[in-house]
Amino acid sequence: xxxxxxxxxxxxxxxxxxLISSISLLMAFSAFSVYEVISFRKEMxxxxxxxxxxxxxxxxxxxxxxxSNEAEQTLGALxxxxxxxxxxxxxxxxxxxASYDRVADDIAFEAPTLRAGGHVFERQRxxxxxxxxxxGETIGIVxxxxxxxxxxxxxxxxLAIVGIVFLAAMTxxxxxxxxxxxxxxxxILNLAGIARQVAVEKNYxxxxxxxxxxxxxxxxxGFNAMLEQIQTRDTALETARxxxxxxxxxRTRELESAHKxxxxxxxxxxxxxxxxxxxxxxxxxxxxxNVSTGLIVDSVKKSKVLSLGRLxxxxxxxxxxxxxxxxxxxxxxxxPAYLGQLSEHLMADQKSMMAELESLRVNIEHIKEIVAMQxxxxxxxxxxxxxxxxxxxxDSLRMHEGALSRHHVAIVRQFEEVRPIxxxxxxxxxxxxxxxxxxxxxxxxxxxxxxxxxxxxxxxxGLVKISISDNGVGIPQENxxxxxxxxxxxxxDGHGFGLHSGALAAKEMGGALIARSDGPGLGxxxxxxxxxx
Amino acid sequence: xxPPKRPGxxxxxxxxxxxxxxxxxxxxxxxxxxxxxxxxxxxAFLINFAKYADWPSNAFEKANSPIVLGVMGDNKxxxxxxxxxxxxxxxxxxxVLKRANSIDEAGACHILFIxxxxxxxTPTVLDQVKGHVLTVGESPEFLEKGxxxxxxxxxxxxxxxxxxxxxxxxxxxxSSKLLSVATLVKGKAN
Lengths: 533, 190
Fold this sequence. Notes:
The structure holds 2 protein chains of 2 kinds. By secondary structure, chain A is of the alpha+beta class.
């Protein structure tokens, strides 16, 4: 059931108009009906009085001359009046002189008790009595009783007419209301339509048409003014949005270039790190080189070559009598034994120096290798090549060799056979170096004995995975989520950039960098996942 | 009558029964004291004739001159008349009772009742009486002899017979109302 307030404006107006017109019509009709009933009653009384007068006049002789037959005959003429149920004539002393009963009804009429003159409506009847006077003398009373059928049939006719007129009036009212309500509803409906259009199409350029200068016209004006304002604001907003877009674009560009710069910086930083490692390693080796060189210098300094020179000069002094000198002279007699000793010394010197020189050669070779490796990574980036993950891991280990052994961190290798990856070598290496250094630091910070870093290389669900796990300080749960954030670090000298750039690089290469830790003191495991070639 | 079903019907029934009872009681009571004797009826009729007859204006001296009702003969009727006539005013005229013992006296009356007792004089009286006299008789051949109205006994009642010719001759107009309760008889035009 639709409630009246949800009906459309048109229907509402039509209903109101119809309601008002039907109420006014009904009121008019009821007023007329009441008037009709009252006037009809009056008319009935008048008619019946006239009838009573006529009857009285016509029966006066019968009364005077005691001819009740004649009186009955006169009353019998009342049959022509179908409304008369019964009638009677009394003498002045109240005795019924003559009476009449309508034949065509089943109600037996008996002359009632004489009552005072006048009329009364009762029991759907009009009862009227009049004295009969003749020549100034009252000689009897006529009594008439009429039914109200005439009134009711007249009312029925009246109601039928009312019904027809009502229907006709309502039809006319409906037609008129259909036409006239447009004066009010058309502008409103038009306005509603435009409001709908604005709502649906978001088109604030449309305008409602003003047709009159009344409140509706004002409404249309107000609506249009509102649309105008909205349109103005809309335009301003659009401009602002365009500006914003431009600014966002600019900012994005700036951010992108900053990112690039950062990436470059990180690459450089990574390279610098590698260079530092290389120099560190080179320095370590150079230590050994220095030691070897010092040893050689010492042994050359302490060489018995000078004793050999003094021996040669002694022999030159005794050139002539060499035989005698060797056999007779006490000094000469010691000479062979001394020579034997000297040669033994020189032999030993040569041997130790040879060993040192060999060590020197090995160390220099090592330096060469380190430098060559650095050179191989320091070449410009952007070139992808097929690399063996295991070799990369070894390279990165080599770069940390010195530091790891210095801090007594044991390395456990668990390498499986994996497919090569197609990457920019230095990027992956940078990540691994970074992870290894972190692992080393994590181990360094714990006092537990048996510092150990386990490196696994394996393939899982189509990805090559390199995991570096330590048994160091571990990572608290709350830090795990922000460990890759830019600028996050737990170290005093950290810059919070390594893991961030590492994760970014891994993502850039189509892989991922995942951190896992069971909590503080339980170690951590970082896994680099990379797509296989 | 249908058995009463509705309260309205019952009320009507009660009313009807009551009416019947009342009418019965009233009639019995009334008849017990006022059963009209013939002289009484005739006396009433004689007075009433004054209402249904129009005399020419020269029948009266003045506008309010009384109507003179004369009785010839029967004492019983005049006795009854004496009882009821006092104070009767018809059409603004008093009605007075006189004995008519002579033709002259009879001629001075407006209504003249000739009783059966004067039957033998009737023709003479009717022949000789002059003026505007409404003659009323009670003998069988009264009208034939020139009377205007005759009172006859019929079905235990007193009925009227009118001789219009005689009325015309006396220049008396008899009301059609009276004629409606009377029998017209052609009689001697006197």
